[in-house]
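ok trying this again, last paste got cut off
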Amino acid sequence: MARVEAVIICLLIVIMDAVAGILGIEAEIAQNKGKHLRVFFIECREPVHQAYRLGLAAATLLALAHVIANMLGGCTCVCSRAEFIHSSANKLMAVATLALSWIVVIVGFTLLIIGALSNSKSRASCGFEHRNFLKIGGILCFVHGLFCLMYFVSATATKREEGKA
């Protein structure tokens, strides 16, 4: 892959994750503008359709950025201890950041979906608090962008190393 293409893909991934993060935080702000009544840890509130749409858009962009990073970054794995010992620093970085990006995307996507679905109903509901799910999911979008960027760069470097060997 040419360097220009790699830079464009990196920018695309970072921009998508940044937009997803902003949408998640904006969804939290929209949700907080709705009517709330809280007693201890039980909360009654009216759903905010704007928060639902923004949260769903953030979750979709996060998933799409993850798919693009993984599909274009390729599969970088270490299958044995001997391979682990003889792996380059780039390959080890690619494996570590791939695992971390999966953890972050699972947690972030789940939080965004829970936050969005709590705003999908048409009537007010009472239950346990779902505070800050959208905001934390939005913040994890930024973290995901960092790990995906690191993964893509190290996976691309690993492919170049293995191609020259």
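PB: full thing came through this time. The mean pLDDT is 84.
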